[in-house]
Amino acid sequence: MMSTGSVTCIVPTHRRDAALARALASIVEQRHTPAVVVVVDDVASPDTRQLTRERTGHPDITYVDNSGTQRPGASSSRNAGAVLASSEYLAFLDDDDRWEAGFLEQCVARLELGDVDLVTVAGAVEIGAERTRRPWLGSRPVTARDCLAWNPGVTGSNFVIRRTAFEDIGGFDDTLPVFNDLDFFVRYLQSGRHYAVVDEELFIQTADGDEHLSSRSARRAAGIQKYISKHSTQLNAGQLRALKREVHLAQRYVGQRQHLAAYHFVLMWANSSPAQFLTVLRRKLAGDKRMYA
């Protein structure tokens, strides 16, 4: 199906120029060419500015210095880029992720059927030379309550949304350093809007290299606590327990003091379900080193 809707692609970046160059290349290769690409830099790097200037031709690339914001980070950068858009649709791509050539084409074609305001896709996680398919995890339609403590597969790089819907929801919450993509999707569903899924491997999420927000750290733990506080009145006991488990898991980071790591290990398992215990045990026995417990 031929897709015709105009798209603004917004790429938040933070001193990862080699990765950014690959992300921009994947945008240029799209079969559905975006109207404009907005690169939003939260550190005002001269090298990043120069990289965007060297990209000539279509689509046009606009560089935005977002270093003066009070809350630097991906959410603030995404919002800053969205403010400049006049296109029908918005698509976001983190600087260390990439799209396959049919990503925009497939998403926009589905949006133009008119019954949904957001389309998300499946993809793959890439660690070094290894790539693992990352399906969109929802086998059935989910509600906001379903995914308060569980992200069914929405990231900051794998959906396209109608611009008016994004504006009505209020964009990303830039006070949340983590779980901002989940928070956005929860609020989208709470607004009563519908979504669709393209079950094709159309984006690649990189999970190696520089430290990621998903890495265990005190910052991640504090960010999850902030998410819990925001949604505390809506969380049921099981969801709260699952999120507390994530907090204690995040506190078991490299360099954490041994007695604190042991303390958080105990509380992590105290907040784990039997199913989680069995899943971790199976993966450990299978030698899956990426699964930590």
Poorly predicted residue ranges? none
Number of helices: 10
Order of helical and strand elements:
EHEHEHEEHEEEHHEHHHH
> So what's the CATH class of the largest domain?
Alpha Beta
Write a short abstract of this structure.
This protein has 293 residues and is of the alpha/beta class. It has two domains: 7-206, Spore Coat Polysaccharide Biosynthesis Protein SpsA, Chain A (Alpha-Beta Complex); 218-285. The chain contains ten helices and nine strands.
What would you note in describing this structure?
By secondary structure, this protein is α/β, with parallel strands linked by helices. The chain folds into two domains: 7-206, Alpha-Beta Complex (Spore Coat Polysaccharide Biosynthesis Protein SpsA, Chain A), CATH 3.90.550.10; 218-285. 38% of the residues lie in helices and 19% in strands. It contains ten helices and nine strands. Strands 1, 2, 3, 4, 5, 6, 7, 8 and 9 form a nine-stranded mixed sheet that branches. The longest helix has 14 residues, at 237-250. The radius of gyration is 19 Å and the shape is globular. The model has no long low-confidence stretch (mean pLDDT 89).
